[in-house]
Design a protein that fits this description.
The structure holds two protein chains of two kinds. By secondary structure, chain A is α+β, with helices and mostly antiparallel strands. Chain A is built from two helices and three strands. Chain A has a domain at about 10-60: Ubiquitin-like (UB roll) (Roll). In chain A, about 20% of the residues lie in helices and about 25% in strands. A three-stranded antiparallel β-sheet of chain A has the order 2-1-3, covered by helices on one side. In chain A, strand 1 and strand 2 (about 25-30) form a beta hairpin. The mean pLDDT of chain A is about 90. Chain B is mostly helical. Chain B is about 70% helix and about 0% strand. Chain B has 13 helices and two strands; from the N terminus they run H-H-H-H-H-H-H-H-H-H-E-E-H-H-H. In chain B, strand 1 and strand 2 (about 260) form a beta hairpin. In chain B, helix 4 packs antiparallel against helix 7 and helix 6 packs parallel to helix 8 (about 180-200). Chain B starts with a helix and ends with a helix. Bound molecules: fe (ii) ion (FE2) (2 copies).
């Protein structure tokens, strides 16, 4: 038995918590269009004034890597400790570096 | 129309005054947008052109370790260029337009990259002094008023921390080496110190563009304040490893609790920025050459995109 989908499209919600800060993923909502998505996101994720701004993006436009493949996927950076400042030996007494 | 512009500008300035950030979809005065495009694209171009003097030493790095480090650093700079180009694109200018402005000379890049990297000590001096000066500037820009620019700066500053350290490590090692190595390190210091100070731009008393930049909070601290901060933290680092700062007028000012420094040669600065530095032509020729030679890659990518879209 097939059911017709009455739930509209899925949108991913990103919230900026403080002016200027990065937009971080909060969750998702169902909506028919971008205006509805924004309003639903507001009502569901910012009831306590959690944000200064919201981005909504149709979930179908999100491409994600698979966490199970993380080992292989991120492998190129694993053996490059020299990308971190702690790799370097600073002369004793060097300040503000 | 006029009325609208005034309303937009008032609402905008009120936001700025309350220390709020401006985001791409917000209304902003045209002059603010153009100021940001000029500054951010110049910043992006600097990251990219800055890869040239360092790239010059990849094949001649003295060890596998130092070669890997230098590659990683240059790769970061390419990344910084990309963050900044993308952030600038949110203001409604395309990557092609920005590259075109670089090639035509309409857009500038940091003047310091018009100096040559003559030997390995220069790689040390660039990381320590040039990245060191850039960091001071970029830390301040983390609080700039345009959101995408500020966020790019946060990311860049995190990555920069190893750049300065790897440069200082090179200098410290050379200063523990032979007489010749010490002389090379000091010579590099002598050549890079003053151009590094010039990176902060003209003195506050004659900096024509900064009025609006402060009102709009694009700029948070003045050229002279940032330059002073760089000098004050770098002198100790130089002395610790036995390098002499090439400024006979440099001395600690007990009253002001900072260093006084000698006069900066702005004539040289103007000469170089107007195209007559040692490497201006070389840097631009190189960029244009490889940009043109890479045209087929861009064409292939566009053809691929077209094909994918046709079949899906
Ligand atoms: Fe950089
Ligand atoms: Fe850097």
């Amino acid at each position: 038995m097939s059911t017709t989908d009455t739930q509209l499209d899925l949108w991913e919600v990103f919230i900026q918590s403080r002016p200027g800060s990065h937009y971080t993923h909060a969750g998702s909502v169902h909506a028919s269009d971008n205006q509805m998505a924004l309003q639903n996101a507001r009502d569901i994720y910012t009831r306590r004034n959690e944000g200064t701004s919201i981005w909504v993006v149709p979930a179908k436009y999100v491409t994600a890597s698979n966490p199970e493949d993380a080992g292989m996927f991120f492998d190129p950076s694993n053996d490059k400790m020299y990308r971190h400042p702690t790799f370097y030996k600073m002369p004793e007494g060097a300040k503000q570096i | 129309m006029m009325m609208d512009a005034i309303i937009i500008e008032n609402a905008f300035q009120e936001k700025i005054d309350r220390d709020l950030c401006i985001e791409p979809k917000d209304q902003m005065p045209e002059k603010y947008r153009l100021h940001l495009i000029r500054q951010m694209s110049q910043h992006a171009h600097s990251e990219v052109i800055g890869m040239q003097p360092e790239g010059n030493w990849i094949t001649r790095a003295p060890s596998l370790r130092s070669k890997q480090i230098l590659l990683a650093k240059i790769q970061d700079e390419g990344g910084h260029g990309l963050y900044l180009y993308s952030a600038t694109e949110t203001l409604g200018i395309s990557r092609e337009e920005m590259i075109e402005q670089l090639h035509s000379g309409k857009a500038k890049y940091a003047n310091i990259f018009n100096y040559p990297s003559l030997n390995w000590a220069d790689i040390g001096a660039i990381g320590w002094l040039v990245d060191g000066a850039a960091i001071v500037n970029q830390v301040s820009l983390q609080r700039t008023s345009y959101g995408p620019y500020a966020r790019a700066m946060v990311r860049i500053c995190k990555e920069e921390s190893f750049h300065q350290r790897q440069g200082y490590e090179i200098m410290a090692n050379m200063m523990k080496g032979s007489t010749e190595q010490k002389e090379m390190a000091q010579d590099a210091m002598n050549r890079w110190w003053w151009p590094a100070l010039m990176m902060f731009g003209p003195h506050d008393s004659d900096s024509p563009n900064s009025g609006n930049a402060f009102i709009w909070k694009i700029k948070r601290q003045s050229n002279d304040v940032l330059r002073q901060r760089f000098i004050d933290k770098t002198v100790q680092q130089a002395e610790l490893i036995g390098l002499t700062v090439p400024d006979k007028d440099l001395k600690w000012n007990e009253e002001k609790q900072c260093y006084d420094h000698g006069a900066i040669d702005w004539e040289e600065f103007n000469r170089v920025i107007n195209g007559n530095g040692p490497c201006n032509k070389q840097r631009m020729d190189h960029h244009i050459k490889y940009h043109n030679e890479g045209a087929w890659v861009r064409e292939a990518a566009a053809a691929y995109q077209k094909q994918i879209n046709e079949f899906n």
